[in-house]
Amino acid sequence: MIGAMEKTDAADDIVRTAYSARSREYIDLFGSMTSTHPSDRALVGSWAQTLSGPVLDAGCGPGQWTDFLTGCGSAAAGIDLVPEFVRRARTQYPHLSFAHGNFETLDAADESLGGVLAWYSLIHHRPRDVRIPLTEFARAIRPGGGLLVGFFEGPAVEPFDHAATTAYRWPTADFERELVVAGFEVIETHTRTSGEQRPHGAIVARRRAADFARPSAGGLQYTREAEEDETSESPADEAGNVLRRRELG
After folding, report:
1. What residues have CB less than 8 Å from 43, skipping those under 6 apart?
2. Is residue 116 in some structural domain?
3. I want to staple 239 with a disulfide (CB 3.0 to 4.6 A). Which of 12, 75, 83, 139 is the partner?
4. How far apart (Å, rounded) are the C-alpha atoms in residues 137 and 133?
5. Residue 4 covered by a domain
6. Helix (H, G, I), strand (E, B), or coil: what is residue 52?
């Protein structure tokens, strides 16, 4: 089960309010895998096959990608800032774990995750703040674990008028640099532009091995915990035990 230590700020409030107001419309338009691009499904599916261990769908929305990851064999769980999305996900996929909260302060042990999917869930982060969740992902992902980020690609880091609230385009090279600084090695990049209203980008990255403590989003130092004996848990049990759910109201 999963959870997060809620860190409410003005930016979170803006995003939460914007998506809550249009949650029904969003779920109708984008709440199933039939609305996703075939190349996106192929990319996420192939990435999932490379992972070992629990996977977090960070910014899971109504939960369709969490369910997709589970269908690919991953021990997946989801977290989202928007309560309407979390309620829908829990109703639609009662066999999976979902929590309400942000993913800048995850309630997950150091190096406990096999991977994180951040599929267009960082697009509303201000450029100066995007390193906060990336560093938190690096803390929670085990060395060699995977991160897959989807975003809107553009010639410069710049805001644009998204249907929900202000979002940001990123040149792929600029986002790569943010990932490297946060503790990742970039494995491959993808772009999709043909027939699209906006160019799309995706980056597959791997958590670098490191023996030093890194600062958290709040400036605290994390240290590596002692390894525990492995158990023969099922994938669903493993995801539930690594990421403990904390109800946030």
Report:
1. 148, 190, 202, 204
2. yes
3. 75
4. 6
5. no
6. coil
Nearest to 50 by CA among 76, 74, 79: 74
Give the phi and the psi of residue 184 in degrees, each rounded to 5: -115, 155
Q: Which domain holds residue 217?
A: 10-242
**Is residue 47 one of the residues assigned to a domain?**
yes
HSE-up of 13 (CA within 13 Å, CB side)?
3
Reference 51, options 8, 113, 123, 125; nearest CA is 113
What does each of the 249 residues of the chain score in pLDDT, given as a tens digit? Answer: 344 334 336 777 777 777 777 768 878 877 788 888 999 999 999 999 999 999 999 999 999 999 999 999 999 999 999 999 999 999 999 999 999 988 888 989 999 999 999 999 998 899 999 999 999 999 999 999 999 999 999 999 998 877 677 889 999 999 999 999 999 999 999 998 866 678 999 999 999 986 444 444 333 332 333 333 333 344 444 554 445 433 333
63: tokens are 């939960």
